[in-house]
Amino acid sequence: MDADSTRVGSHRMLAELDFATGLRTPIIHAFGSAADELARFVEGARRRPDAKSGHQVFAIFHLITRGLTDLIAGAHLLNHCYTVQAYSVMRPALDACDLIELFAADDGEASTWVMTEEGHKHFMPGQVRKRLGQKGHDPVHSHFSESGGHPRFAGAGLSGGMRVATDDPNDRTAILCIGPMWPEHPSVLFGWLFASNALGLLAFKARHLEIIATTTNRFVSGAHRRVGTMVVNRMMRPPMVGVPRLP
C-alpha cells in the first residue's frame, strides 16, 4: 500500500484553494453563472406584509441561502478534486430542499424546527421525506452520506485506486491520495453532475418564496427554468480532462 507520490505538498494544498486549477475553468464558470442567477432572484425577494409566520419566512429564506452556499462551497472543493470533501459539503443541499418543501406546506413544522432542542429527532432526513409522502430511503442521499459524509469504506474509492501489474493481475497495490483526487476519476464527473442537478432542484424549490415574499409565479418559474437550462447547456459543452467530449 502506497501514498500517491505525485501529490503536491501540504503548504501548496492549503494555498491552492485560493486560485483556480485551470483544468475545469469553463465548468466552474458555467456553474457560477447559474448560481448567480438564483442568488440574484433570492436577493430581490422581499417579505410580504401578510406573511403569517416569522419562523416560516426565516426558515425558507435561510435554507435557500444555506443550500446555495453549500453547493458553491462544494463546487469550489470539487474544482480542485477534493472529491470526498465536496460530497460531504454538498449533501445537505438535498436536506435543505426537503425542508423547504415541508415548511412551505406547514408553517408549524418551521416553528418546530426553530424552537426544538431535539432537531436530530424531529428532522431526520428519512423522517422528513416520509412526512412529504416519499420513501424514507433516498439512494442519492445515501450515496453521498456513505461516500463523503461518513468515513466508511464506500469513500475509499473516491480517495485512491488500485495499481495492478500488467504482467501479474494478482500483484496489486492500493494507492491512496493525500489531498486531491485524480481529475479524470469518474467521481469528479459525478460530483459535477450532482452539483448541477442539486442547483436546479434548489432553484425549483425557490418557487415557495411566493408564499412569503413579493414575487410572482411567472418570475419564480422563470428563475428556476433559467438556472436549469443554463446548467444543462453549459455543463455539457466544456471538455473535462480525461473524459471524452460529448458529440
Task: Write up this protein.
The chain is mainly α. It has helices at 10-16, 25-43, 54-79, 83-90, 92-105, 107-115, 119-122, 125-131, 139-149, 186-205, 217-235, and strands spanning 2-3, 160-165, 168-176. It has a three-stranded mixed beta sheet, with no helix packed on it. The chain is elongated, with a radius of gyration of 20 Å.
Strand content: 5-15%
User: Radius of gyration, Cα only, in angstroms?
Assistant: 20 Å
Count of DSSP strands: 3
Shape: elongated
* Main sheet record: 3 strands, mixed
Distance between the termini: 39 Å
Number of helices: 11
Quick overview:
By secondary structure, this protein is mainly alpha-helical. It contains 11 helices and 3 strands; from the N terminus they run βαααααααααββαα.
Features:
247 residues, three-stranded mixed sheet, 3 strands, elongated, disordered N terminus
